[in-house]
């Protein structure tokens, strides 16, 4: 299993992480777990329970379905629009700003 840098420090950290038995592993941005590097890492860590969090449960390679095998089934989903309406997320205001390109030769 190879992931990340292969310095002596990182190898020692990997060894320590793999030797422990974790009660709960909390995985933020869990949509990246189906990627080979992350998949190897999550399979190497012994955890009784895995909790995955993400705001973007999407992948362009259609490997998102692999999360159920790697982490477990989705337990909860909330609409971002509902979270905005309920005051948990800020309302978004988008504005177009046009900035004409000035070539470096025009600067004095």
In terms of topology, how is this protein built?
Blueprint: H1 8-19, E1 21-28, H2 36-44, E2 46-53, H3 66-70, H4 80-85
Parallel strand pairs: 1-2
Describe this structure in words.
- This protein is of the alpha+beta class.
- The chain contains four helices and two strands; from the N terminus they run αβαβαα.
- The protein has a domain at 8-77: Rossmann fold (3-Layer(aba) Sandwich), CATH 3.40.50.300.
- The longest helix is centred in the first third of the chain and has 12 residues, at 8-19.
- The mean pLDDT is 85.
Strand order of the largest sheet: 1-2
The percentage helix is 25-40%
The helix tally amounts to 4
CATH topology of the domain at 8-77: Rossmann fold
The CATH C-level name of the domain at 8-77 is Alpha Beta
Unreliable runs, pLDDT <50, ≥5 residues? none
